[in-house]
């Protein structure tokens, strides 16, 4: 089998399974299995693939055909300048969440930032990577997610203080960042199988209007706490109404995505 053969077999299989980007997915899975850059699949398409690698590719394609996300199959995901290890214990970090990191980039040196619902540690670790002068801590309601965040902090060599718990832990913070669950209960069944079959439901769904976790966070935060909250575009007005001096920022797609304000 050659690289071209592997692509020619994988792409139609992934397409038939309903994957949205079958060529890209096949290239990522095959290139990683061969430990080569994706471009090599095109510059050296006749490169022979030996048996052990062919078996790894077949197994990866089988998992992707079952709609497992590429990030879980590869076990990692890029986020801003860092790479995070991810598995089914944590949500796969999304590109729109990078906006939450940007909100904190202009803070004065030495500011204290806390990331609530850190999952893989994406937001807190990307921030520490870009602003090592900040004092960054993070927490999550899930011990399983914290294990992944701890592993990522150690692997990246970043000094992230992690704790288990709901909402904002006791302490003094200049800014609290949170990408908490915000999917409505009635939306769940209609989401892509990549999400409903593989990602942790409790990391995504939060009550009838999707705002239970955000409301609880705002209510539990000491008055005056500065908060930056990620939400769905249709939730922006409701989130603004929970905060004082609120303003909403748009993500790269032009959707209202992060609201910044103070706890009343
Ligand atoms: C949408 S995921 C976001 C993960 C990560 N911040 C990211 O952006 O990739 C939400 C995370 O919040 C955690 N979580 C849910 N409710 C919470 C709460 N009330 N307090 C703290 N963490 C919570 C979940 O366990 C999950 O890891």
Structural class computed from helices and strand pairing: alpha/beta
In DSSP terms (H or I, runs of 4 or more residues), the helix count works out at 11
Q: Please outline the major beta sheet.
A: 7 strands, mixed
Bound molecules: S-adenosylmethionine
Kindly state the mean pLDDT as a whole number?
97
Counted beta strands: 9
- Major sheet: order of its strands? 5-4-3-6-7-9-8
Principal-axis shape: elongated
Name the helicity range: 25-40%
Order of helices and strands: HHHHHEEHEHEHEEHHEHEE
Which band does the percent of strand residues land in?
15-25%
Outline the low-pLDDT stretches. Answer: none
- State the separation between the terminal residues, measured CA to CA: 64 Å
**Cα Rg:** 20 Å
Overall description:
Helix content is 38%, strand content 17%. By secondary structure, it is an alpha/beta fold. Strands 5-4-3-6-7-9-8 form a 7-stranded mixed β-sheet, with helices on both faces. Helix 2 (22-33) packs antiparallel against helix 4 (51-65) and helix 6 packs across helix 7 (122-130). The chain is elongated and about 65 Å long. The termini are far apart. The chain binds S-adenosylmethionine.
